[in-house]
Amino acid sequence: MMESSRYLKITGGTPLHGSIRIQGSKNAALPVVASGLLLGRGETLTCTNVPQLRDTETMAALLRALGMTVTFENGSVTVSRTGDLSCEMPAAQVQKMRASSIVLGPLLAQQGRAVMPMPGGCTIGARPIDLHLKGLAKMGAQIELHHGAVYATAEKLRGCRIYLDFPSVGATENLVMAAALAEGETIIENAAREPEITNLVQALQAMGADVVFKKDNQGIIQVNGKPELASGSVRVVPDRIAACTYLLGAVITGGEVTVTDVMPQHFDSLLAKLEEAEVGYLRQEDRVTVYPSRERMKSLSVKTMPYPGFPTDVQPQLMAALCLAHGTSVVKESIFESRFQHVPELRKMGAEIDIQGNTAVIRGVETLNGSDVQATDLRAGAALALAGLAAEGETRVHGLKHILRGYEDFDKALNNLGANVSIEEGEGII
Predict the structure, then answer these.
(1) 88 C-beta neighbours (distance < 10 Å), count
(2) Distance spanning both ends of the chain, measured CA to CA
(3) What is the mean pLDDT of the chain?
(4) pLDDT of 120
(5) Is residue 10 located within the same domain as residue 83?
(6) Burial (CB count <10 Å: 0-12, 13-18, 19+), residue 208
C-alpha cells in the first residue's frame, strides 16, 4: 500500500563532527506532564526542558481534552486545573501513542472514574497494560473491558502493597501517580528504576506529594496519599536515548561528536559497551565525546534489560553500528518480542543479520549501501537513519512520522553535525 508521506533523504559517507545539546527526555516529559492531573483546583505545574515533539504535543492535547489548561511554549509546559474534568479519554489522542495509558491512574485517582480506549503507538509487539490494571484493582478499583476500552471506577483508591511481576515503567508511573491521591500508604515493590521514574517522583514531590524511594532506589517506592496536590515546578531530565543515538552516529560514521547537557550516569550501559568495543570516548560531568577509532569497532554481545541494564530503546541504533563492526555480534532482546523490525530494512542496505527467536546474529560487513527503507517504529527509524549516514550513496527513510515522535529537529541536528540530510515529500510504503 502506498501513501504520500515525508521521508528523510540522506547522502551518506560523511563522518559526523561537532557538538549537540541534548533535548529534554520524551519518556520523562510525558508522565511528568500527565501528573498535572493530580493538581487541586486553581493549582499549576510548570515543567521546563520539555522537548517539542509529536508525543509531547499529543499529551498536551489529551490533557486539554480532559479539561486541563495546558500551555506549551519555548520548552516550557504549564498544566493548570481550573474547572471540572472529563472522565473519558478521547480515542483520537489515545490511539496516537501508547504512553496515553499513563493518564489512567491519575485520572482515576482524581475523578473516581476513567474510560480509556486501548492506546496505539509503535508496533514493537504486545505491551499489555495488565500490570497497570492489576495494581489499580488492588487499590480498590473496579476494572471492566468493553469494546476495546478500559472502564475503571473507584469511590476512593486505598493504599496497599503492590508487587510488580516485571519492573514495568508504565505500570510504575501509573501506580505511583494514583497512590499520590490514594487513602493511606502504598508500597510498590519491584518498581522500575529508570531515571524517568526518578524525574516523575521529583515532580510529585514538588507538588507536595509524600513519595520516597526506599533503600536507595532499589525498586521500592513508598507513597503516603494526600487529598490533593498543590502548585510546583520541575525540570525534565536530559534524553539519554537521544544522547546514545547521536553518540552512535559518531561511532557508525567514524566521526567525533560531543553530547552536552547530559547525565552520563544515565547511559553507563552504552559507555561500557563502547569501551568493550574499543571505541574511544571522554566522559565529563555533563558531556560525553566519542572519538574516531583507528580500526573498526569490535563485535559485541548485548542483552537488553530493565534499567540499569542496556536499554531496549538503544538496541536498534547499536545494531546499526554493529553492522559495520569487525567480527560477529550477538544481540538478545529480552523486553519486547517484536523489536527486530528494522532488521529486514538493514538487510536491504547490505547488512548480514540472522534472527533466531529473540536473538540477532550480526556479521560485520565492510560497507552498507544506500536504499529505500521503512521505519516501523521510533527507534527503528533512528537506526535506519544512522545506517544511512554511514552508507554509500543515498538512503531514503520512509515513515518519518515515527522518528519525529522522539527526536527534536532531527534533520537540523544531524546537519549541524555535518551530515547531508533533508526532509522530502514523496511516496512511502506502509
Answers:
(1) 15
(2) 6
(3) 94
(4) 55
(5) no
(6) middle
Which of 213, 235, 257 represents a domain boundary (last residue)?
235
DSSP letter (8 states) at residue 377? S
Q: Are 136 and 108 a contacting pair, CB within 8 Å?
A: yes
What pLDDT score does 122 carry? 44
Those residues whose C-beta lies under 8 Å from the C-beta of residue 93, and which sit 6 or more positions away, are 58, 61, 62, 65, 100
Q: Provide the annotated active-site residues.
A: 122
Looking at the predicted structure, is the pLDDT value of residue 119 above 90? no
The pLDDT confidence band at residue 217, using thresholds 50, 70 and 90, is low
The residues near 32 (Cβ < 8 Å, ≥ 6 apart) are 47, 199, 200, 203, 234, 236
Rounded CA separation 397/345 (Å): 10
Whether 2 has a pLDDT exceeding 60, the answer reads: no
pLDDT of residue 124: 37
> Are 231 and 366 contained in the same domain?
no
Residue 376: CATH number of its domain: 3.65.10.10
Question: What is d(CA 148, CA 327) in angstroms, rounded to the nearest whole number?
Answer: 47
User: What range does the domain containing 364 cover?
Assistant: 2-23+238-429
Spatial separation of the C-alpha atoms in residues 51 and 22, rounded to whole Å: 10
Strands (E), 28-85: 44-48, 69-73, 76-80
The per-residue pLDDT for range 87-105, each reduced to its tens digit, is: 999 988 888 887 899 999 9
Q: Report how far residue 430's alpha carbon sits from residue 426's, in angstroms, rounded to the nearest whole number.
A: 13
> Quick one: 407 and 282 in the same domain?
yes
Q: What pLDDT does residue 31 have?
A: 98
The per-residue pLDDT for range 163-199, each reduced to its tens digit, is 999 999 999 999 999 999 999 999 999 999 999 999 9
Residue 237 has pLDDT above 90, yes or no: yes
* Residues 36, 173 share a domain: yes
How is residue 205 written as a grid cell?
A: 514531590
Spatial separation of the C-alpha atoms in residues 40 and 227, rounded to whole Å: 9
